[in-house]
Structures are given as C-alpha cells and as structure tokens.
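Re: Re: ligand-bound prediction request (bumping)

Still looking for help on this. To restate: I need the protein modeled with oxa(dethia)-CoA bound, output as structure tokens. Inputs repeated here so nobody has to scroll up.
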Amino acid sequence: MATLAMSSGSTSARIISTGAARGSRVVDNDEICTMIDSNDEWIRQRTGITQRHWVAEGETAVTLAADACRQAVERAGMTLDQIDTLILATVSNSQQMPSMAARVAQELGCPSPAVFDISAACAGFCHGVALADSLIRTGTSTHVLVVGTEVLSPYLDMADRGTAFIFSDGAGAVVIGPSEVPAIGPTIWGSDPSHSEVITLDDWESLVDGQERPYLRMEGTKVFRWATTFVAERTRETLEAAGLAPEELDVFIPHQANNRITDSTLRQLKLPEGIVVARDIAQMGNSSAASIPLALDAVLQSGEARSGQKALLMGFGAGLAYAGQVVVLP
Ligand code: UT7
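Reply:
Sorry for the wait, this slipped through. Here it is.
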C-alpha cells in the first residue's frame, strides 16, 4: 500500500525584518485625564505610560496592519508576491468573516497567500511566531508575514479608570523565512483557563441597554499577580529551553502591559544589568497583539539593539494565555 508523501522544509527559521504603524493621534496622560478620574503621576508610577497612540479618521486595524506589513516586506528586500502565508493576531475584529488577514492581503495586493487570524490577545503575536516557525520547518510555508494589529480605543469604557488609560492602537509585523542556523528557539506556551474571565470583551449579543459596542474589561490586580508569578516562571523556562543562561541574553521584549511587571520579571530571572529592555509602553500604552512587534521594531530602529543579538519575547494576556520564545534579531 502506498504511503503518503510528507513535506519537509528548512532546518530553521528566522525573523528577516520588522515593520510598524501606530495610530497617528497621540493622546498624552493629561488629555486622557480630561476623560477619566486619574492623574499623570499615578499613571506613570503605576504603569510607565506617558502617552498612547489612537487611530485618527480613516485609520483601522486593517490599514495599520497593511502599513506595518508593507514596511516589513520592503525592509526584507522582498516583494509581496513572495509572501505565501499571512498570519494576523488581533482581538479588535468586529467582523468575523472574512478573516482580517484576508482583508489585509487584499489591501496589500498579495496574490494568493494562506490567510488566517489568531485570537490569543496579548499573546497572539508570539503564537504567530510559533506557527510561522513550525510551518517553515515542515515545508508548508516559505515566507510568512506575522502581524499583530489592534484598534482598541473604540472598545474603551471611559467610565472605567482601571482600563481606559491603558490600551492603544497600532500594528507591528515581521517577515519570517528559512534560515541555515537556529534563530527561533522553542516556544513555551499554554494557558490558565480557570482565569478565562479576568480579561474580556463584552459579547456583541449581550450588550446592556444603551451600550452601542462591547467594552474591554480587566481585573487588573489578578492579571498583575499571574503575570509576576506564573508567567515569570514560564519566561525562565523559555530562556532555558533556548539553552541560554541569563547572562547570554541581550534583549528582553515582554508584552508591554506594565513596567512594574517587566521589572519584577527582570529581578526574578536575574537578567544582567546591561540587558536592553523594551519600554515601548511609555510612548505606546498597551496595544495587545501589536505590543511585542512594535517594541521589537522600536529597539531595532532606535539602535538600542542590533542584528544578531538574542531577544526573549514573552506575550501574556486574555485567556489567560501566554507564549514566548528566544529569537535572533534581524
Ligand atoms: O494586556 C493584558 C495583560 N494586562 C496586564 O498585565 C495588566 C496587569 N495589571 C496592571 O497593570 C495593574 O493592575 C493596573 C495598572 C491595571 C492597575 O494598577 P494597580 O496597582 O493594580 O491598581 P489597583 O487597581 O490595585 O488600584 C490601586 C489604587 C486604588 O485606590 P485605593 O483603593 O488604594 O484608594 C484605585 O482606586 O489606585 C486607584 N486607581 C487609580 N487611581 C488613579 C485605580 N485606577 C486608577 C487610575 N488613576 N486610573
């Protein structure tokens, strides 16, 4: 009896390039405090946020994603017809069908990529990197665009001062392709379903009277505790799985949720003093699935980090879900 042929691909995969797009309206803490009962000092001390980007007229999660993808493909020295797979991570998708990835492919004019969305909130981008890595190593795909994109400002409840100042709008993309040397370490991922209710977007079918759209809701303290205990341990495992000691890591790019979570993880993992730490939250707030690729792009564009360095990515959020991996920077 005939056996099935199996696909086989490159021994390794790597991030080739990055691209970024931020909502063009900059809202600083003083402006947000005209909308909520808070103050600049509290927001800076408790989170590290000084401003956030929101969309302006005409900008959407699709246009931001397309801009970030276009930049990543250009920087890779490639053309859009070389992209065979487009994976998009988002939670700000009000249209279930077609996928947002399909709409971004249309906006870009990609000829015929495989397109699908990932819903893993702030861990979505790292889920996408894990999939791209596997697809390339099995030979299913060759050049994959992974983009995290969010427009969360319309989902903010301005009566909720525990969330309204945090979330933002932007998109970050990477091109991932074959590599002759290892450049994406093992992914450590999972979830805590017992906490599936602590970060939610309201169900469109259960909106209360007078509410026009879903609101983003978060029990911040519970998430904070989980991120600084459980996720910190998984971050340590991610480093170990890549075969690295803390002093061999160059760059730390955690989900941009709160600088105090980042600092706690740095201390627990005893990461070296001189390590580059992404703090894009200061300018950007928390852009969920876009936060890690935007922070990755920012440390490269600013010159803080350089090509060839090893960076630990760790996404965590609604689910509660997490995913992380060590990558070699493009
Ligand atoms: O992206 C998904 C993953 N998300 C995260 O990882 C978020 C994790 N959580 C957090 O980052 C933090 O929990 C927050 C930044 C959301 C909140 O900070 P917190 O230190 O946990 O504040 P809290 O909710 O415990 O509130 C502390 C105090 C309270 O006052 P009292 O009861 O101590 O008098 C709040 O009423 O701060 C008050 N407060 C505020 N004050 C000024 C809460 N929100 C505000 C505010 N401005 N916006």
